[in-house]
């Protein structure tokens, strides 16, 4: 199906559930953005390298999606140049954080071989995952590209990973911040105060339904990463095909 083709199919329950989550985030935070009441990232604000490391299963969007998102970020950067904008090479969907990036990472990485085996067992029979990227939502600290699925392939992979990690005594650190259920891409983090919150909020509102394209995920990478998936800090540990 073309990524720009209209669809007359009923909205799936999964897509509707994702829409509701994104809408709640948007409604709770757009006023804060407009007022400049953002959460500044202390590590980014310090200008120092991030010393935290995690182990994460990720997927990359198609090149045409990356290009459209990068064009959108160029628009935002002209308004707010002092924020942290992800490079196109850093765009990703988190399948699952096997452990959330932390300064206390050595004890987790000592078991990297076990993590690799667990992921291999979880994804060996997994189906490809199709995600449509459309519109934006926000948290107090970030701007995200919304991702939508019409089936349970993504959550099935996540649940299989959680089960394998639990079975192998590797569940510590999984879903440490929250249980991941969306298909978003974080693309902006707030490093500094907004120059003009009203203007930035208006730009986000204009992108609320902007279409970025569809990706059919057939490859998953297990990576060692910092909090921001910085390209220079990222190491690919293993690659898997769905």
The strands making up the biggest β-sheet line up spatially as 2-6-5-4-7
CATH topology: Cyclic Phosphodiesterase, Chain: A
Mean pLDDT: 93
> Total number of helical segments?
7
Structural class assignment: alpha+beta
What share of residues is helical?
25-40%
Report strand %. 25-35%
Low-confidence stretches: 1-8
| Sheet with the most strands, sense and barrel status | 5 strands, antiparallel
> Structurally, how many domains make up the residues?
1
Radius of gyration: 18 Å
- CATH architecture classification: Alpha-Beta Complex
Strands, total number: 9
- Identify the overall geometry: globular
**First and last CA, distance:** 20 Å
Q: Can you lay out the helices and strands and say which pair or pack?
A:
Blueprint (H helix, E strand, L loop, with lengths): L12 H23 L6 H5 L6 E7 L3 H17 L4 E2 L7 E10 L3 H4 L2 H12 L5 E11 L2 E7 L4 H15 L17 E5 L7 H10 L4 E7 L1 E7 L9 E7 L1
Antiparallel strand pairs: 1-3, 1-8, 2-6, 4-5, 4-7, 5-6, 8-9
Helix pairs in contact: 1-7, 5-6
Q: What key attributes describe this structure?
A:
242 residues, alpha+beta, Cyclic Phosphodiesterase, Chain: A, five-stranded antiparallel β-sheet, four-stranded antiparallel β-sheet, disordered N terminus
Q: How does this model look, in words?
A:
The protein has 242 residues and is α+β, with helices and mostly antiparallel strands. The protein has one domain: Cyclic phosphodiesterase (Cyclic Phosphodiesterase, Chain: A). The chain is built from seven helices and nine strands; from the N terminus they run H-H-E-H-E-E-H-H-E-E-H-E-H-E-E-E. Mean pLDDT is 93; it is low at 1-8.
């Amino acid at each position: 199906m073309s990524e720009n083709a209209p669809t007359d199919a009923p909205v799936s329950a999964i897509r509707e559930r994702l829409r509701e989550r994104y809408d709640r985030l948007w409604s709770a935070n757009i006023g804060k953005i407009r007022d400049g009441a953002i959460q500044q990232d202390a590590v980014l604000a310090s200008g120092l390298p991030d010393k935290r490391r995690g182990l994460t299963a990720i997927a990359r969007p198609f090149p045409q999606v990356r290009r459209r998102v990068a064009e959108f970020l160029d628009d935002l950067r002209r308004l707010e140049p002092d924020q942290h904008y992800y490079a196109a090479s850093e765009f990703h969907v988190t399948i699952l954080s096997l452990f959330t990036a932390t300064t206390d990472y050595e004890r987790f990485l000592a078991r990297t071989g076990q993590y690799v085996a667990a992921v291999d067992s979880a994804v060996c029979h997994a189906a490809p995952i199709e995600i449509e990227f459309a519109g934006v939502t926000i948290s107090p600290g970030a701007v995200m590209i919304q991702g939508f699925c019409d089936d349970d392939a993504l959550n099935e992979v996540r649940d299989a990973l959680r089960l394998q990690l639990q079975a192998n005594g590797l569940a510590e650190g999984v879903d440490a911040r929250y249980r991941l259920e969306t298909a978003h891409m974080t693309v902006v983090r707030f490093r500094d105060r907004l120059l003009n919150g009203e203007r930035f909020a208006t730009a986000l509102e204009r992108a609320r339904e902007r279409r970025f394209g569809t990706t059919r995920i057939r490859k998953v990478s297990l990576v060692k990463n910092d909090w921001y998936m910085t390209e220079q800090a990222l190491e690919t540990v293993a690659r898997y095909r769905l």
